[in-house]
Amino acid sequence: MSYSLVVYLVDQNQISRVVNSKDSDLFNELKEHFLDEHDEDEWEEEDFNVKTGLEHLVSGAPISEEDRHMVGYGLEYLCQFVGGETMDTDRFASVHYDFLEKVKYVLPLVNRGAPIPTISLGDDFPYIGYLTRDECKKLSVETEELEHPDQGILLAQNDFFKWVDAAASENKDLIGFYY
User: Fold this and answer.
1) Which of 18, 76, 84, 98 could bond 10 through an S-S bridge, CB–CB 3.0 to 4.6 Å?
2) Is the pTM of this model over 0.85?
3) Which stretches of 38-173 are DSSP H helices?
4) Crossing angle (nearest 10°) for helices 24-37 and 50-59
């Protein structure tokens, strides 16, 4: 089975302000925003309950180990809510993890965990990672001429550095979700 990597160009500070804010008005705003794109059933769907993940992120509501993976999906939704821009990840659609290992540069966007230390994720998908704006600025300056015998890997590496350059120039962070 193959999975996909989705990467957001986002200001982590905006997400930090939401996490554990205990702001019920903000939570209601999140719900309304979600319902603009989805129906009520999806909000409280038993098997895939975004509401549970967002409640935990915003208010610190208890969450079962069984639902802990929803925190990751809630975090992705927060990226969208605060205006995170989805990067072009077409080359990372329907790929196996070994492809990510070959591209190697993207691994911090997959296996580093949440960018905010207080966010506790489950062991299930999505796998999450990030690069801070400072890390992106450093990588952007240090970029060397890429070479790889596999053209697909080389193009994917080039895409990664386009994301890094965008983050560096816009003074934003990258957060990745692999599922």
Assistant:
1) 84
2) yes
3) 40-43, 50-59, 69-81, 97-103, 108-111, 133-142, 151-170
4) 150
**Residue from 38, 27, 6, 1 nearest 174 by CA:** 6
User: Which is it for the CA torsion 104, 134, 166, 33, positive or negative?
Assistant: positive
N-term to C-term CA, the chain: 11
Query: Which token pair is 49?
Result: 């309950």
Identity at 2, one-letter amino acid code: S
Closest CA to 2 of 93, 88, 77: 93
pLDDT tens figures, 39-84: 666 666 666 677 888 888 999 888 888 888 888 989 999 999 999 9
Task: Measure Cα distances from 52 to 41, 43, 79, 95, 172 in Å.
Answer: 13, 9, 17, 29, 28
Q: Nearest 5°: phi and psi at 143?
A: -55, 130
The Cα–Cα gap between 121 and 125 comes to: 9
The single-letter code of the amino acid at 97 is: Y
Q: How many CB atoms lie within 10 A of CB 45?
A: 14
**The token pair that represents 127 in the structure block:** 């796998």
